């Protein structure tokens, strides 16, 4: 499942949340209805329900899309297995530009705030810097990792870039010169994602060792390690005010499969958990406050569901699947012919 790896800012309309997916290009409209049934361990059957007319785009990629990021309120950037970064206007469906330079799949994209520049990371162990208004060739090529690059984070002042990898290391780069200025390595720290805390010198990092770490970019020293979870931490996101972060877990059959809210201030304690997915939670994001009356968190998972949670209470507010209990409906299998 495509990770919701875009920083949704208040300037972006709420509809972008539903459109930042793997297909883009010429705009089409379509009415969808699916009778797919998903059996949960607790005996409840979940069934997709009829949706309103959705807007779709002719694919701009020829293979799986791994990541989407927002460059500004109109333009988004996607990357994937076809080794191409595509800049497109999500409002019109027009592809603006393609950037080709990586030798293997693009894994992460990070945009430089208030600019036309962005970075792409890849399984080819490199990070490339691109300029929407510049040459078709990358402005910089950053090489320093021994394995796939799995984390990218740009500092709030756009002067530094932090990269992470499955080689257990984090590297800190000077954006202006393209030079590596700091390096840190922790045994078994297979990085899965990085986020820079707004207005702070701190970087949040998730890992396959089930740990969330907080790094101080001043010397790239580890500032804090949050309590170890029971499953791999797949993704993290920091709130706009920098007070909290949310991480999400791998899992199966409802074991694990949760998102966790952490306090980044003095206590640095666990504040809330969001449980309801039944497979690995791939991504999590804070929704813009202007889009809801209460603070909300969205999660996407390998169970093909996106869920919206009340950030403070952990209550499930919205899901893209309707939940029907056996008492509410006769359980039907797809082979029965009754799933219309």
Automatic annotation (TrEMBL):
Pfam family, one: WD40
InterPro entries in UniProt: WD40/YVTN_repeat-like_dom_sf, WD40_PAC1, WD40_repeat_CS, WD40_repeat_dom_sf, WD40_rpt, WDR31
WD repeat windows: 99-140, 142-183, 184-216, 274-319
Record CDD domains: WD40
SUPFAM superfamilies linked to this entry: WD40 repeat-like
Transmembrane segments: none
Matches recorded under SMART domains: WD40 (SM00320)
Protein's UniProt name: WD repeat domain 31
Native organism: Rattus norvegicus
Gene name, Swiss-Prot/TrEMBL: Wdr31
């Amino acid at each position: 499942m495509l990770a919701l790896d875009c920083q949704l800012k208040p300037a972006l309309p709420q509809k972008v949340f539903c459109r930042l997916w793997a297909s883009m290009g010429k705009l089409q409209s379509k009415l969808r209805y699916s009778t797919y049934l998903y059996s949960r361990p607790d005996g409840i059957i979940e069934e997709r329900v009829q949706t309103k007319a959705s807007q779709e785009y002719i694919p701009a990629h020829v293979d799986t899309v791994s990541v989407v990021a927002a460059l500004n309120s109109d333009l988004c950037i996607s990357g994937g297995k076809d080794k191409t970064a595509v800049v497109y206007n999500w409002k019109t469906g027009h592809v603006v530009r393609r950037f080709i330079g990586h030798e293997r799949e693009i894994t992460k994209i990070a945009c430089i705030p208030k600019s036309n520049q962005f970075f792409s990371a890849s399984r080819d162990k490199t990070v490339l810097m691109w300029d929407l208004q510049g040459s078709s060739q990358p402005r910089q090529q950053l090489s320093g990792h021994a394995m796939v690059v799995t984390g990218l984070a740009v500092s709030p002042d756009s002067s530094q870039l932090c990269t992470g990898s499955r080689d257990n290391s984090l590297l800190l780069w000077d954006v202006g010169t393209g030079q590596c200025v700091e390096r840190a390595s922790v045994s078994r720290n297979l990085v899965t994602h990085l986020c820079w805390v707004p207005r702070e010198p701190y970087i949040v990092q998730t890992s396959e060792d089930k740990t969330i770490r907080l790094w101080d970019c001043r010397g790239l020293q580890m500032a804090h390690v949050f309590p170890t979870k029971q499953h791999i931490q797949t993704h993290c996101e920091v709130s706009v005010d920098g007070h909290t972060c949310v991480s999400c877990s791998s899992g199966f059959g409802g074991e694990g499969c949760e998102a966790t809210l952490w306090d980044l201030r003095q206590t640095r304690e666990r504040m809330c958990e969001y449980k309801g997915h039944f497979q690995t939670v791939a991504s999590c994001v804070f929704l813009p406050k202007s889009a809801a009356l209460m603070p909300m968190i969205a999660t996407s998972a390998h169970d093909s569901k996106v869920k919206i949670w009340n950030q403070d209470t952990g209550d499930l507010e919205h899901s893209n699947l309707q939940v029907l209990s056996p008492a509410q409906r006769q359980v039907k299998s797809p082979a029965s012919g009754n799933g219309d």
